[in-house]
Each structure stands twice: as C-alpha cells, then as structure tokens.
C-alpha cells in the first residue's frame, strides 16, 4: 500500500500509488489564502497516482487561477490538490495532509518574493522569488494555480 492521507473531519481519504517527488514550499498569495497559513508544502505524483479511497463525492473544486484549480474537502475545508493546465500529467498534493507528513521533506521554496515578513524558515534549501527556473509553462506573473 502507498502513502495515505486525509482531511481534518475524516470524511475524505486518499492513497498515493507512487512515491511523491518535487516537494517544496510555496509562499504565493493564493496558497496563503487557501490555507490560512503563511505557506503550503506541495509534492507531485503522476496524474492517476493520487486516488481517493473515501468520500470522493465530498471533494469540491475551486478555480484558483486562470490556469489552475484546487480540490478540498467540502465538509471541513482541508486543501488537498492543486492541478495546473500546463502540467496535466501531474497533480500536486498538500504534504501536511499525509498521515505521516515526515515521509517527504521540502527541497526548495517558490514565491519567496511574496513570503510574509515574519515567517523565517531557517533551512538551507534553495529559494526562488517566483517559480523554479525549469518549471514548464508557468513563467507568467500569476501565482501557481
Ligand atoms: Zn473533511
Ligand atoms: Zn502557492
């Protein structure tokens, strides 16, 4: 069985069918508003490798940018997924929703340029003011989906 996770109220559960990759912090304004926290940590899996195992009918979706949307528990609001039109082959899930979030650790920061001033991570991982240089399709001015 792969890594598992779920929401605050327990109505929605998921399983990963492969190992997640590209784990990183995002400090964009959309993530701040989506989470109510200074930043979010996402990791990626191939589309189809993130599978709802309970409560798929409770999952809601919201357009969070012109090219992306986010999926969350419609009962308790826990944010699960970000999907971006430019990268249909992968989905990004919020790492803190894993049952064991320490399984994977962030390797970089993106949107450091919109980091909240009093939030001061002291890790030594790379910091990018916006997207990472090799990010496909996402070089505009908008934050990630
Ligand atoms: Zn929930
Ligand atoms: Zn973000």
Chart the SSEs and their pairings:
Layout: E1 4-6, E2 13-16, E3 21-26, H1 29-35, E4 40-46, E5 50-54, E6 59-65, E7 68-73, E8 79-84, E9 90-94, E10 109-110
Parallel strand pairs: 3-10
Antiparallel strand pairs: 1-2, 2-5, 3-4, 4-9, 6-7, 7-8, 8-9
The chain binds zinc ion (ZN) (2 copies).
One zinc ion binds at residues 7-9, 11-12, 73, 75-76, 78.
Written account of the structure:
The chain has 145 residues and is mainly beta. The chain has a domain at 22-114: Beta Complex (Metal Binding Protein, Guanine Nucleotide Exchange Factor, Chain A), CATH 2.170.150. 5% of the residues lie in helices and 35% in strands. The chain contains one helix and ten strands; from the N terminus they run βββαβββββββ. It has one helix spanning 29-35, and strands at 4-6, 13-16, 21-26, 40-46, 50-54, 59-65, 68-73, 79-84, 90-94, 109-110. The strands form two sheets. It has a seven-stranded mixed beta sheet. A three-stranded antiparallel beta sheet has the order 1-2-5, with no helix packed on it. It is globular, with a radius of gyration of 14 Å. The termini are far apart. The mean pLDDT is 92. It binds zinc ion (ZN) (2 copies).
């Amino acid at each position: 069985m792969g890594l598992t996770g779920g929401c605050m109220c327990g109505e929605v559960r998921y399983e990963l069918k492969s190992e997640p990759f590209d784990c990183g912090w995002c400090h964009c304004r959309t993530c701040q508003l989506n989470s109510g926290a200074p930043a979010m940590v996402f990791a990626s899996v191939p589309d189809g490798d993130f599978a709802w195992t309970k409560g798929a009918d409770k999952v809601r979706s919201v357009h969070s940018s012109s090219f992306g949307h986010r999926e969350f528990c419609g009962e308790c609001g826990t944010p699960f997924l970000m999907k971006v039109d430019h990268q249909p082959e992968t989905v990004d899930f919020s790492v803190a929703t894993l049952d064991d979030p320490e399984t994977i650790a962030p390797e970089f920061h993106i949107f450091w340029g919109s980091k909240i001033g009093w939030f001061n991570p002291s890790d030594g991982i790379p910091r990018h003011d916006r997207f990472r240089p090799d990010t496909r399709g996402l070089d505009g001015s908008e934050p990630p989906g």
